[in-house]
Structures are given as C-alpha cells and as structure tokens.
Amino acid sequence: MMAFFPPIPLIRRNHILRQLRACGAVSQETAKTLTEAGVVNPDAFRKITERLIKTGVIRRTPDGRYYIG
Questions:
Q1: Model-level pTM greater than 0.90?
Q2: Rounded distance, CA 36 to CA 54, Å?
Q3: Is the separation of the CB atoms in 34 and 42 below 8 Å?
Q4: How far is it, in rounded angstroms, from Cα 23 to Cα 25?
Q5: CB neighbours of residue 20 within 10 Å
Q6: Using CA atoms, how far apart are residues 8 and 41, in angstroms rounded to an integer?
Q7: pLDDT tens by residue, 34-53
Q8: pLDDT score recorded for residue 1
Q9: 3-state SS of the chain?
C-alpha cells in the first residue's frame, strides 16, 4: 500500500490565490501583504510564493505587497 502525501504546493498556491482574491488584491493599488490577505503562515513555503511571482501568477510591489497578476 502506498502512502498518500497531500499536494502541499498546490494547496498552498490555491490558498494564496483564494485569499488575495477574497480581499480584492487585483491591482497594484489594491495590493495587500500576505498577512493582510489572511494567508496562514505567510512566511512559510517561500519558494511557492517566489514561483508564483516568477511565473506571473501574482505580482509583488516594491513595498512587499502582493496582488493577482
């Protein structure tokens, strides 16, 4: 029997996107920090956040806020 490992990167990605959408962070003017957006453990899984930025799924403002790109 194989062990089941939840797809943590996918769960995290969806959580970040859901929270940014829910708080209306859809432009540079409405951008929020991950804490303001309600992301659980905003400093955890930094590589996932960086990958979302690198692929253009989300964008980061110079002052460290995020919005859906």
A1: no
A2: 22
A3: yes
A4: 6
A5: 25
A6: 13
A7: 999 999 999 999 999 999 99
A8: 62
A9: CCCCCCCHHHHHHHHHHHHHHHCCCCCCCCCECHHHHCCCCCCCCHHHHHHHHHCCCEEECCCCCEEEC
